[in-house]
Amino acid sequence: MAGSIADRRVVVTGIGIVGALGHDIESFWKNVLAGVCGIDRVTLFDVSAYDCQIAAEVRNFDPVPAFPTAKEVRRTDRFTHFGVYAGWKAIQDSGLDLSKEDTTEIGCFIGSGIGGLYTVEEQHKILLAKGPGRVSPFMIPMLILNMASGMFSLYHKLRGPNVATCSACATANHAIGEAWRTIKMGDAKVMFAGGTEATIVPMGMSGFAAMRAMSTRNAEPQKSSRPFDRDRDGFVMGEGACVLVLEELEHAKSRGARIYAELVGYGNTADANHMTSPDPEGDGAARCIQMALRNGLLNPADVDYVNCHATSTPAGDMCEVMAVKRVFGDHAMKLALSSTKGATGHMLGAAGSVELALCCKAIESQIAPPTLNLDNPDPACDLDCIPHTPRPMKIDVAVNNSFGFGGHNACTIVRKFVG
């Protein structure tokens, strides 16, 4: 691959997604703009004894078309089903004909924050009830979190770089950023990148609830996730996956690919502050955004829209606003921001790729998605957070933030493609 690192441009040419709002990017985006909320009472198991009884489930989902056989589906966990399906949809959306490509130059970074939690639960029940001899020989490959990335590459014979990132809720954004670097370095021409998660299981729901991290607004599921609102009381879990096709520009142009946007910047920092709480001054998040701007050769005033990580937790939303103000200064009051988690739920390790996909669609359509349920803005979150309805506006540059337990921060930036 010719040219220096600075010469290699990376564009987004495909999006595959599965979540509570749809199983492809067009239906998902349509529902986001329509103000549809994917959160409802959990149906995957009996939640009557749980403090939090709501989530954004993926319903009416059949993974079989994305797999070689139905047997392969039975030998993989739900998080792998989502990841492989999203990757398959991304291939279709991109128009890539893999039979005509050198697959040693195509890689895959599909991460997960937790991996096969469903398998852990089910196999532990079998161990206790029937003994170690009845545990499935597929247990380990079903639960390890690299398996979505590994199986997707196996099914499509992708022999380029393959890594599964794991950085809690920053996972997918890190996967995309590291895939961007991989193409910039000349180690691949095409990368599938994103995240997948399936943690709406008893252990997942009870564990997060024990931390008092989740909303208990069970009587009003559609109003439970309230980013930036003074009455927010915690996040609401979502599940699903999103995989983006990142492509070296000249490769994309040579095949006449449709280009959503150009990926121009990536930041990666740590808070080094607390196991689960963000830096109270937003320092790590601010440095992350600044790094992404620097890598993208952008000034703060170049940014039009920010898709915030804001999960609807009291501390997290406020700290992100502080970080934005720190980075953008006076321009912060001119920015349009939103958190789409009021509609999608918090998809944990998949969130960053879902939200970058929405940034790409925002640039394509010149419409910023809304923040649902922002009825009473928190005085500490006093920026323009696009309440309730989408906003037609000029969007040339969009910033996507993701922050995870452990103090992990990731930021990616896309801009309108200009050839």
What keywords describe this structure?
alpha+beta, 2 domains, Peroxisomal Thiolase, Chain A, domain 1, 419 residues, two-stranded antiparallel sheet
N- and C-termini, Cα separation: 19 Å
> What's the tally of helices?
13
Rg, Å, rounded:
20 Å
Strand content: 15-25%
Q: If you consult CATH, what is the topology of the largest domain?
A: Peroxisomal Thiolase, Chain A, domain 1
Q: Give me the CATH architecture of the largest domain, please.
A: 3-Layer(aba) Sandwich
Global mean pLDDT? 96
Low-confidence segments:
none
**Main sheet overview:** 9 strands, mixed
Q: Percent of residues in helical segments? A: 25-40%
H/E series: EHEEHHEHHHHEHEHEHEHEHHEEEE
What spatial form do the alpha-carbon principal axes imply? globular
The CATH C-level name of the largest domain is: Alpha Beta
Q: Which secondary-structure class do the elements indicate?
A: alpha+beta
CATH H-level homologous superfamily name of the largest domain: Thiolase/Chalcone synthase
**Could you say how many structural domains there are in total?**
2
User: Looking across the biggest beta sheet, what order are the strands in?
Assistant: 4-5-6-1-7-13-12-8-9
Number of strands: 13
Q: Can you tell me about this structure?
A:
This protein is of the alpha+beta class and 419 residues long. The chain has two domains: 10-254, Peroxisomal Thiolase, Chain A, domain 1 (3-Layer(aba) Sandwich); 265-415, Thiolase/Chalcone synthase (Peroxisomal Thiolase, Chain A, domain 1, 3-Layer(aba) Sandwich), CATH 3.40.47.10. It contains 13 helices and 13 strands. The chain has helices at 25-33, 70-74, 78-94, 117-130, 139-143, 147-156, 171-184, 202-210, 249-254, 283-295, 314-328, 341-344, 351-365, and strands at residues 10-18, 40-41, 54-55, 106-111, 190-197, 240-248, 261-270, 305-307, 336-338, 367-368, 391-392, 397-404, 408-415. The chain has a nine-stranded mixed beta sheet with strand order 4-5-6-1-7-13-12-8-9, with helices on both faces. Strands 2-3 form a two-stranded antiparallel sheet. Strand 8, helix 11 and strand 9 (336-338) form a beta-alpha-beta unit. Helix 3 packs across helix 6.
